[in-house]
Design goal:
two-stranded antiparallel sheet, 14 strands, single chain, about 35% helix, 12-stranded mixed beta sheet
């Protein structure tokens, strides 16, 4: 049974639940910058794992947290989360994918989607563990003003995301410092430290932001930089921007997503010009051209860490999805993500048509 670890700044309904009804649609009572962490048991009830309704959320709990700075009183749930993941990943060949969901997701929806993605994005080439960041979107596509409510909530949630990322960097820094002391002590004795004596996990960290999750990520980067003395620490291997509801110049602008170039080794923009959901965002909600529609505004002006994958020929799923859910429902896209996570070369992949060697490709549909 998969266990989905999560971070969330939603309001707390219960500290534990047998069915996942733990967090609500609004911010934590302490404000949008406050987050809690926990874990949910999730099971596949049968049928297609791509169908969120086939996943069942079971026992769910928040980790205890005491924000008392007096000596010995402070207890951070995030410390427990990071340590559990460190131990698990050190024993298994699994990467971590941090998943930031988009517009109109309840907490339970986002947990089911995270479990589905963990199943779908794992392959023989590389297994993954998905860690969810769930921000308070209201779970409704209509009416139109709910879109703007969620957009405001996603922006404010950047405060909590940035703080969570800062805690992760601090945790990784402590591990590195502890290991350095162990290595130096062993060298003084003419020894090589045993693997079990080292605390660092060597597995990779990735981020997957879908739709409005990319807008939230923009504001998380801003808060992280502020907390980190204006610096962006490179702690992420791949960032996957899937159907990003962001401006198409976002990767060019320092106050938008340009800092991703300092955070990650590689940035992959999956986009589709026929994405109906983003077309509506563009034309009816007064938004600039979307990154998830046409891709980066000018790939030539971006660093060679940025890659673009055109999904217009593989965007079709179900009519109600508005060609916006291909990142999890089309096998062509899932296989492409598998190949990247398994460190296969970007050029020369089956199913890719080269648009610009080494930088941009179009995914071709499977032959029926």
């Amino acid at each position: 049974m998969p266990i989905i670890h999560f971070v969330s700044n939603r309001n707390v309904l219960h500290e534990s639940s047998a069915t996942g009804r733990l967090l609500g649609e609004r911010f934590n009572a302490g404000g949008p910058q406050i987050f809690r962490v926990g874990a949910a048991d999730v099971s596949l009830a049968g049928g297609n794992p791509k169908d969120d309704d086939n996943w069942r959320v079971g026992a769910t709990k928040l980790y205890a947290e005491t924000l008392d700075s007096r000596a010995g009183k402070e207890k951070l749930g995030s410390a427990r989360l990071f340590e559990e993941l460190r131990v698990a990943l050190k024993d298994e060949d699994r990467d971590i994918v941090i998943y930031i969901h988009g517009f109109a997701n309840t907490f339970e929806d986002s947990v089911r989607r995270a479990a589905s993605l963990e199943h779908l994005y794992s392959s023989a080439g590389q297994q993954v563990t998905v860690v969810l960041f769930s921000w308070p979107s209201n779970g409704r596509v209509q009416p139109a003003w709910d879109y703007f409510s969620d957009r405001e909530d996603a922006e404010a949630s950047g405060l909590a995301m940035g703080r969570a990322l800062m805690r992760l960097v601090e945790f990784l820094t402590r591990l590195r410092q502890e290991d350095q002391r162990v290595v130096l002590a062993a060298r003084r004795d003419g020894q090589v430290p045993a693997k079990d004596a080292l605390r660092q996990c060597t597995r990779r960290l990735h981020i997957l932001a879908h739709s409005m999750g990319a807008w939230a990520l923009r504001h998380a980067l801003r808060k992280f930089s502020e907390l980190n003395g204006g610096r962006i620490t490179r702690v992420v291997d791949c960032v996957f921007l899937m159907a990003a509801d962001e401006d198409n110049d976002a990767l060019h602008v320092a106050l938008k997503l340009q800092p991703l170039d300092g955070l990650a080794n590689r940035i992959f923009v999956y986009h589709a010009a026929n994405d109906v959901a983003l077309t509506i965002s563009d034309r009816t909600k007064g938004m600039p051209d979307r990154l998830g529609s046409d891709g980066p505004q000018n790939l030539d002006r971006l660093s060679e860490r940025v890659f673009a994958i055109d999904c217009r020929q593989v965007a079709e799923t179900q009519p109600l999805h508005g060609r916006h859910q291909y990142f999890r429902l089309r096998d062509e896209v899932i296989r492409d993500v598998h190949a990247t996570l398994a460190d296969r070369p970007q050029d020369g992949r089956p199913g890719r048509e080269v648009l610009r060697p080494g930088r941009s490709w179009r995914l071709a549909p499977d032959r029926r």
